[in-house]
Amino acid sequence: MKKVLEGSHAVAEAVRLSRVTVISAYPITPQTHIIEYLSDYVADGTLKASFLKVESEHSAIASLVGAASCGVRTFTSSSSQGLALMHEILHWTSGARLPIVMAEVNRALAPGWNIWADQLDSLSQRDTGWIQLYCEHGQEVLDTVFLAYRLAEAVSLPVMVIMDAFFLSHTYEPVDVPEQELVDRFLPAFKPKFQVDADNLVALSPLVTPNFYMEMRHNMAKAMEESILQLAEIEEDFSNIFGRYYGPIEPFLCDDAEIIMVTSGTVTGTSRQVIQELREKGEKVGLLKIKLFRPFPSEIIRKALGPAKKIAIIDRNFSFGAGGIFAQEVRAAMCNLSDCPQIFGYIAGLGGRDVTTDLLEDIYWRTKKSEVLSEESIWMGLQEENHAVERS
Amino acid sequence: MPLNVPEQDYMYPGHVACPGCGAAIAMRFFLKAMGEKIIIVLPACCWSIIAGAYPQMSLKVPVIHTAFETGGSVASGVRAALDMKGDTGTTVVTWAGDGGTFDIGFQALSGAVERNENFIYVCYDNEAYMNTGIQRSSSTPYGAWTTTTPGRSWKRMRKKNIVEALVAHRIPYAATASIAFPEDLVRKVEKAKDIKGSRFLHVYATCPTGWRIPSEISIKIARMAVQNNIFPLYEVEDGVKYTINYKPKEFPVREYFKLQGRFKHLTEGDLAEIQEMVNEDWELLLKKAGD
Ligand SMILES: Cc1ncc(C[n+]2csc(CCOP(=O)(O)OP(=O)(O)O)c2C)c(N)n1
Ligand code: SF4
Ligand SMILES: [Mg+2]
User: Fold this and answer.
1) CB-based contacts of A160: which residues, under 8 Å, 6+ apart?
2) How many angstroms is it from B71 CA to the middle of ligand 3?
3) Are residues B41 and A66, on separate chains, in Cβ contact within 8 Å?
4) How far apart are CA A63 and CA B94, in angstroms?
5) Pick from B152, B158, B150: which is nearest to B134 by CA?
């Protein structure tokens, strides 16, 4: 049924329809609406789940480690400082091979306190062994929660469904909320591959010597790798039932494009419009949205970007001393191509600053006019004269 | 005199605890009373090692090893999942050291007890971080040497009173127990088993390696700690009803300290000071118990 829903509400609807058994979460802006909706569902019996109102994010994810070890479907949601606080247990979750799903609302890290969109929180967790899926709009967020459970449970790895603060979490859009019956068809009850109960003598996550640790990590690596193929199969299933498809990447007008702009999250929506307008002016430009960031679909990206002359990557994040994180990953994926396109990295929209159509267009023209390749990140829209803080 | 404790053992021989390890003895008696219908949540501590390295295990009950500070939180999730699955017959037990309880895991424990999660939390107390090589914890007693309170910098802060901290949560059941009083320990475990909500057992567990004592006096030291009121045996129900289980005759602390290498630097003056602290704590407990 079509409803006009806030992004957060779309997540909550998807969690309800996924018949999650244990939820555990701790509030942080801009994630709060998600857990408020879920609190209502659990309180009024719409969702038959146990919702642990724990005393911190660390305990939220740790309690799900306990619950998921008992073989039930679990959910949490966090953002920014909260996600950072979970860091230790994010590693634990994937190492313990627990298919926990989290909705992560991209918010800047302090200081200074900033509750607005910025991807550094989730990207800082890129090495934790979580699958990461970046979403563009409300429908995608809802659908991706279903995909996330199927994928997590297929490969025994946790999945983060990631959405921009406010631009997505608090924006109302028409969203098709499917019938329970259809969701059940796509996402049957969780059949755990292992679980603890009193009659099942196991020791989960014990001390592991160098004799075994490396093999365990290698198994994880294989599961990560496998999740690209798994996701493709799962999406096929999904599109057969729901008629919608996303893919690990989404190319838009890329076929004959000389310049391809690369985005993730809500910047993609704005970019679509800009690309369309530039095309109308005769510019050979395309857009590539990257949805699957972990595992990084290098081969698929190489194929999509390889034919272009120049690539402009827009990062709403910055790794200090290195650059935009999507740019780093794309460069690493492309570097062995014999005829590698020139890759330009742009930093835009940190801490929730608007990434406007003007700014995106500016990025396009700069990329087109640049003769020499600059390895350095190009910071867009800085108010240098007005606000530069001298620290000498 | 034979001990009046259950016959059945749920630990295999051949585990890797040091000889005379009180933590191993504590687990053995605890499981005898607890039985096998349990899941143990085991945060990082000496017991992470004693329980066995992959692919071996020294316990005959299932264990979820977890991060150091997650004893309260992981157990909460296990309980929630079991309840949702309709498995209300299994008891969830967290088994943690003093570091994992008094210090880094205190927040998660406090949260779990405030929510009155239905589980038993056992803290085996060896009064320092032993797993990492004898560093001080907030359970380390006044006067003790550890590797982070070396030489003249021996610990000059008092031991945190963890039972009182939990009693402040109005926890349904909190009790102290000692490896030197196994029948009392077994009785408390059996009692805790039948109570609903959060239950806390604080078990005194000698560590010969960390305390610098010969392993054969492990139990003797534990017994002395009770007899000289350093570690009184008592229970608190619903945060208000105190029962002192053992009231010793006047017994000076001096000999207890003299037997342990970790206290060897203390002067007679220091010991007199400590005696006063112990007396003061005991008087306070008597007052709370209305005795
Ligand atoms: C977050 C974190 N910090 C530090 C450690 C290292 N560490 C493991 S066990 C331990 C001490 C455990 O002390 P306690 O809980 O008293 O148990 P014991 O080893 O004395 O039995 C420490 C510091 C860790 N595993 N995790
Ligand atoms: S160091 Fe102490 S607590 Fe740890 S195993 Fe040895 S005796 Fe037991
Ligand atoms: Mg200890």
Assistant:
1) A101, A102, A103, A104, A122, A125, A130, A131, A132, A133
2) 14
3) yes
4) 13
5) B150
Compute the nearest-CA separation of B60 from chain A (Å): 7
Could you tell me which residues are beta bridge partners of residue A207?
A: B53
- Chain B hits for A205, Cβ within 8 Å: 64-66
Ligand 2 is surrounded, with C-beta below 6 A, by B 17-18, 21, 23, 46, 126, 130, 207-210
Q: Is the pTM of this model over 0.95?
A: yes
Torsion of CA A145, A146, A149, A150, to 10 degrees: -140
ipTM over 0.85: yes
CB contact, 8 Å: A215 with chain B?
no
Element (H, E) at B268: helix B268-289
Residue A379, domain CATH: 3.40.50.920
Taking residues A107-133, what's their average pLDDT?
Answer: 98
Q: Which of A50, A70, A208 sits opposite B53 (nearest CB)?
A: A208
Query: For chain B, which domains are there?
Result: 22-289 (3.40.50.970)
Q: Which domain holds residue A271?
A: 249-391
Tens digit of pLDDT for each residue in B58-94?
A: 999 999 999 999 999 999 999 999 999 999 999 999 9
How far from the centroid of its chain's Cα atoms is residue A183's Cα? 21
Helices (H), chain A: 7-17, 32-43, 57-69, 80-95, 120-123, 138-155, 180-186, 210-242, 267-280, 298-305, 325-334, 357-369, 384-387
- pLDDT above 60: residue A385: no
Residue among B57, B80, B107 minimizing CB distance to A56: B107
- A127 with A220, same domain: the answer is yes
Compute the average pLDDT of residues A28-55: 98
Q: Tokens for A321, please give them.
A: 């001393």
CB B123 within 8 A of CB B109: no
Which stretches in chain B have pLDDT values below 50? none
- Give tens-digit pLDDT for A158-183: 999 999 999 999 999 999 999 999 99
Question: Are both A111 and A188 inside the same structural domain?
Answer: yes
The C-alpha angle B120, B123, B128, rounded to 5 degrees, equals 165
Given A242, A265, A296, which residue is the final one in a domain?
A: A242
